[in-house]
Amino acid sequence: MIEAAGLTKRYGKTLAVNNLSFSVASGKVTGFLGPNGAGKSTTMRMILGLDNPTSGQVRIGGKQYRELKDPLRTVGALLDAKWVHPNRSARAHLRWMAKSNKIAESRVDEVLETVGLTSVAGKRAGGFSLGMSQRLGIAAALLGDPEVLLFDEPVNGLDPEGILWIRKFMHRLADDGRTVFVSSHLLSEMALTASQLIVIGKGQLISQSSTEDFVSRAAENTVKVRSPQLAELRSALTQASAQVTDEDRAIVVSGLDSAKIGEIAAANKIVLHELSPQTGSLEQAFMQITGDSVEYHTGLEAEAAEVVSAAQ
Ligand SMILES: Nc1ncnc2c1ncn2[C@@H]1O[C@H](COP(=O)(O)OP(=O)(O)OP(=O)(O)O)[C@@H](O)[C@H]1O
């Protein structure tokens, strides 16, 4: 169980985390979602005592990190998979961690087995692929057999097989009854991994709910429209207060149903080649909900969402 109350972190003029309160329950995977720069890593660092809050506090099992007697036995974290001495073997790295945290050496082979690295345990960690490094990082997080696990963007850069492995592994950890808190900026990935979602933007809480609720609230129906007069149509629809997103040689309209869009097109003598109701893409819904909270608008968010959706 993790509980944050009024958690705030200021770096000079930047309010990285702003009065954030949430709770993360055990026995579930909870996704921590937000656009780049939303404050996820800063929050995770505060949970782990690596950064001090400017105000507010966060507790793990009722205690602040610095009050924990054996931190690694309470909370394990994967923040940066490449944080390992490149010339050390995976086993030597874990033995060193176990020793410096007074954890029985027998745990090393157990966790290597758990993450499927036994056959390469004697190899240099510096030569590991990103997927193998992630597994080693997870093995390190599990050394103290902690009840609470934190993963910061664990699937970044992984291939589909690596992503699937991480997703299944997190489900397994939650099924063991552990608290699994995982950050990501990809809603479609989190929708498959997490049963609960905490969504932040610009350091503030946007929503805390089950993934199912968030998705059904977020995924409003849209209409995909193709037309040889796309620019005219876009402007007519925008004047009618619709929200319009560009797609490949089409637009996606929200705020109006297909009948109304057809009527507006007819009234403006605009030819339509397609008018098809869609159930909203998760990534687009996420962009809509967090849109005002994206720190650096590039105008490429919709395009990025399409790339992400296409990659799923
Ligand atoms: N050590 C620091 N010094 C100054 N500003 C910082 C520091 N760490 C983070 N920030 C700023 O705080 C804000 C939140 O950053 P943070 O890395 O927590 O976001 P994030 O949600 O993890 O983003 P990403 O998905 O890109 O990792 C950003 O504006 C960032 O530039």
From TrEMBL:
GO molecular function, one example? ATP binding
Superkingdom of this entry's organism?
Bacteria
Which segments constitute the ABC transporter domain? 2-227
A Pfam match = ABC_tran
Could you confirm whether the keyword Transferase appears in this record? no
The keyword ATP-binding is annotated on this UniProt entry: yes
Keywords (A to Z) from UniProt: ATP-binding, Nucleotide-binding, Transport
Which InterPro entries does the record match to this protein? AAA+_ATPase, ABC_transporter-like_ATP-bd, ABC_transporter-like_CS, P-loop_NTPase
Annotated family: Belongs to the ABC transporter superfamily.
The name this protein goes by in its record: Export ABC transporter ATP-binding protein
Q: What is the species listed in this Swiss-Prot or TrEMBL entry?
A: Amycolatopsis azurea DSM 43854
